[in-house]
Amino acid sequence: MATTGVHHFQLTHSVSSIRPSTRTKLRPNSVRCCTTTGTTEAQNVTVKNGNDSLEICRVLNGMWQTSGGWGRIDRNDAVEAMLRYADAGLSTFDMADHYGPAEDLYGIFINRVRRERPPELLEKVRGLTKWVPPPVKMTSGYVRENIDLSRRRMDVASLDMLQFHWWDYSNSGYLDALKHLTDLKGEGKIKTVALTNFDTERLQIILENDIPVVSNQVQHSIVDMRPQQKMAELCQLTGVKLITYGTVMGGLLSEKFLDTNLSIPFAGPPLNTPSLQKYKRMVDAWGGWSLFQSLLQTLKRVSLKHGVSIPTVAVRYILDQCVILFGKLQPGVAGSMIGVRLGLAEHIKDSNAIFSLSLDEEDMSSIQEVSRKGKDLLRVIGDCGDEYRRA
Length: 391
What we know:
This is NADP-dependent oxidoreductase domain-containing protein. The chain has 391 residues and is of the alpha/beta class. It has helices at residues 75-87, 102-116, 119-124, 140-154, 173-186, 200-208, 231-238, 274-286, 289-306, 310-319, 348-356, 361-371, 377-380, and strands at 31-33, 44-49, 52-57, 59-62, 92-94, 126-131, 159-164, 190-196, 215-219, 241-245, 321-325, 328-331, 333-339. It has a domain at 54-249 and 312-358: TIM Barrel, CATH 3.20.20.100. It is globular, with a radius of gyration of 20 Å.
């Protein structure tokens, strides 16, 4: 497949060079903003670690919304919607073993692609899934059983990417699980091994154990800039990529919530989905609804300037985050997730507009100015994923 214009993030240091006795000293707040004024960016990026690599779309279709709580999903309508996204070039789908019927829907979808679409599209479609096990003993058989289940559901011989999550860091079984996953990759059952919601310290431990993960999927938005404080620099040092979710905050970062007052009952749009409720809590932790309105107003001015929507600006801003490494700006985010309510709502046009949007220095500065008025969520919540591990 053509890769002209794609950002390829090469390993700066070999993973094996990071050892417990020579821990990398990370500098917080090393983030800067990259701008690509006057350019149209390629849709795809390659995530890579050593010999493992996978080309994905930089805007991923998140399928958490199929798990219930966003409205009833009709199977046929959902698969038809997936085909429309893929036909429009938005061909990377992100799911998990616990996202309701997500993996089964992907299996139906990929068979439709095989039967009804040219081979070129099949080569571009990617299905990324997650495994979120309880912190029990991670035997080879237990890991294999669960990966085989996802393979059957998705109807693929090899998972494009398996993103692993672990709840309890006091239990080092996550290293056993990742080593078994690496063995399955060697058998051809998984193409790339990755992480989701791991913090910087544990990511470094994993890399020190020579486990070649290609990415870490973390919560990241204009409100939640935690990944840029420590995580992004380690990722740049090692070649691991960031894939972000919550980038439009379940829809809070949109025109729908501009100029609303949620303190007055029934005065604004209802927070009637799990994602809206989740990210409203992030807004509260960051600085509250009044400051969030200032952010939306700033994003609206930028969106009007470029003729796009607020969510488009919000995603572009995160994709443009960079890290200063060895005196050079290095892109820090490989791709960002946008949740899809398959068959219920569609945002193909807005998603594709992200690739042609170029935020200039004035845009970036105005957004950054509001973002910095909020609280430092690294201090309030902790590092990436800590919100899932607090007692």
